């Protein structure tokens, strides 16, 4: 009768566990793919793949129970299973060298992807011909900002992530010696001039918020749509209220003065500031004649880095990104107007783990080739000797 | 073996090779040299192609065939002749029965005879207003939510739109003598332009000249916005090679340039000659136009026109389909009759079909300047090709007809699939969008993963043969069972390697394109499912979790996984590889999945239900 410890070790080393986990993984991938039709990629990804369990909230959703393993759980169990099986059963021999390389490559791939999940960020840098930008904007996250513009050379930005706005009523902003009170928050909205289509008055006391109406919309999960939130926030200095503003990515900037300082208040896409700037010199967008099939997208940019003194031109095109300062810049979108300066959007990706799939591919490919070629040669030898 | 038995395979090869080459025979064209006309280069869908391709592709979209059946019910008219009529004799073209309508409610709505499948433009004309009403309404309905009736209406509307566009591509559809029209246009230009200038600067002008030129210009403006292929080549190819124009745009441009583009007068000459039935005049204008093109250094475009016309005429894939079918039948029969002659006949025919198939594949690569797989259509052609290679290799080792049957069945089926995909795409050689414009990744990722699909299907088919032969016949001896099992294992190893490497290469391409190795896109997930299933197969086999019959059922399930990955994910309507919901495609996919599940359930029957095992048990 094996001891409990032996039982656990046997369990994690077993081939049956591998097969069961792979079957669970297949089911997960299949369900997660179909779910994207209704839930959208971003949500399905978080729910099925980047989770330990798939949760189900029966009834009114007050509690939830795990009903199926999620991507992280299956991945971790497979990883443990793989390592345990190798320690327990595999001796390094010529016959098994192929399998070793395959599994090592797989481990590298899985771990590398885990690091990517945790560490990588993606954002968009939108720049018009003739101008430059030194920040990129997040695809999903938003932030409420209070910008101290009193210094002519610098802006001091206090940024409050949307998640805090959504869940808190009072947020202290010590950097500005103020606090923020959230009076209303809508995760996705249209802003209208009047109360038609079920819009409610914003009810702010300062600036445009006094007249604008907010029409709440259900949040979208579609791949190419973005939620546009709105909030009515009140600024409080000590005991006094400075008033409340309606802030939203849809509104132009609103300013206020407090204690002789000029501030800007807003709700914008979350910014990732870069220690250098990219200027767009020339954007090209060609289509095949007589069609709207894109033939070529490219942006000629100038990288200007004050710290290193760099100032050089680079061409960014489809399938040819710019890798610079630990970031990669891809040609993402292009405005298609026929007149006026073009606007090019670059996707900015930080992924320290980007090389792992390349190495893993080579390793697993070589391992598979070695393993199967040795079988093939043995097979051919047998047939030629028996024939 | 007697001499006849030895010669039969070669006789069959000779007969069918002759059949393949028969289309090279130059067509007897007593009147108009329409084959030469078909070779003329034009610009459509962003690429230079011969009028013959425009004709075939347009007719495929409208009529789902590359020919038109004439009134007598027997003679069929080639596509280029139909196009010539549409471009230059639209009144006659209106009588041709080209519009395919299957849905009975549509026929009733348009008051068309119920028994007929094909209808002419004249037949439909009385009901145009009703069509318009319907399309206005249906256009606002989301594509995925349309009923079959609505889809058929929209399909018909698209066909009518394409037809009307073609009618106005060479000349305005109401023009009866285009050459004469251009002559009068030429006379009207100078005074007309002067009149317009005078009118704009507020001076005195001739109302007659003003009205005349505006009347012509409005005709040509309509043509320029509505025409389908661009017929007029650039006036200075050395400067701008792709500055092709539609006939209408070119004629409007005369106001600035002052002179008619020579191509317009040649086409006009051809048009009037064709309308008047004058063969020699048509051929003369055609020859002069070709001479002009050559003189202006349009040799590459002329060559393209010639080569692609040649390829269209050869109809290689259609021929290969027929030969594969025969090879399959011969292979199957050779099992039951245990006849080495029939096996050899099947094998040689399979090789012939393979040679024709390969020629078609390579020639397409040559025409496009691309690796073999660029869209869904060519992926089907290549999956078939890869599977045939594997089948022929198996036959070389085992020599028992199994390889032939596998190769020819997959070859035949994929050709049918490809043909149906061609009906859905406007042009199977369409230009590639920017992100796909990379021969390196097309040659590596796409080719490797398509070979992965091919090998999964071959393994699945071998397993189907095992199950069918085992359950329904007594031909599954232990020796054959073992050899089938080894074949399946070998092919699955190959499939694992190619599917895995292909999937990773796809991820690396995505990383180079938009910085994300893996995005859980449906197509990526589909590929991952294949790799996972292949891994499960191998691990289950190594762990002894399943034995021979269980592994065969798993291999058949692999067919379901692969078809989901190849087609199913495209139908979900989401993700980067979405081609939208193809209703008939979905029905066929479901039917295929059901058939595979049926075979798996047969495979799971206990041993005593298998005819082959019962006999073995009885003799043991």
Q: What do these coordinates show?
A:
- The complex is a heterodimer of chains A (387) and B (620).
- In chain A, strands 3, 4, 5, 13, 14, 15, 16, 17, 18 and 19 form a ten-stranded antiparallel beta sheet that branches. In chain A, strands 6-7-11-12 form a four-stranded antiparallel beta sheet. A three-stranded antiparallel beta sheet of chain A has the order 8-10-9, with no helix packed on it.
- In chain A, strand 15 and strand 16 form a beta hairpin.
- The longest helix of chain A is centred in the C-terminal third of the chain and has 31 residues, at 356-386.
- Chain A has helices spanning 4-13, 15-39, 41-49, 71-89, 97-119, 162-167, 356-386, and strands at 53-56, 65-69, 121-128, 132-148, 156-161, 170-173, 178-186, 189-192, 200-201, 213-216, 230-237, 240-247, 254-258, 261-287, 294-305, 310-317, 322-324, 327-334, 343-350.
- Chain A is of the alpha+beta class and 387 residues long.
- Chain A is built from seven helices and 19 strands.
- The model of chain A has no long low-confidence stretch (mean pLDDT 86).
- In chain A, 32% of the residues lie in helices and 39% in strands.
- In chain A, helix 2 packs antiparallel against helix 3 (41-49), helix 2 runs antiparallel to helix 4 (71-89) and helix 5 (97-119) packs antiparallel against helix 7.
- Chain B is 70% helix and 3% strand.
- Chain B is mainly α and 620 residues long.
- Chain B is elongated, with a radius of gyration of 29 Å.
- The model of chain B has no long low-confidence stretch (mean pLDDT 88).
- In chain B, the strands form three sheets. In chain B, strands 1-2 form a two-stranded antiparallel sheet.
- In chain B, a hairpin with a 2-residue loop joins strand 1 (41-44) and strand 2 (47-50).
- Chain B is built from 25 helices and six strands.
- Chain B has helices at 3-21, 34-38, 51-63, 79-88, 90-93, 104-109, 121-124, 128-138, 148-167, 178-200, 207-226, 247-257, 262-276, 279-295, 299-314, 316-337, 340-368, 376-398, 402-424, 439-472, 478-514, 522-542, 548-566, 583-603, 611-619; strands spanning 41-44, 47-50, 67-69, 76-78, 97-100, 118-120.
- The chains are: A alpha+beta (387), B mainly alpha (620).
- Chains A and B meet through helix 2, helix 3, helix 5, strand 15 and strand 18 of A and helix 21 and helix 22 of B.
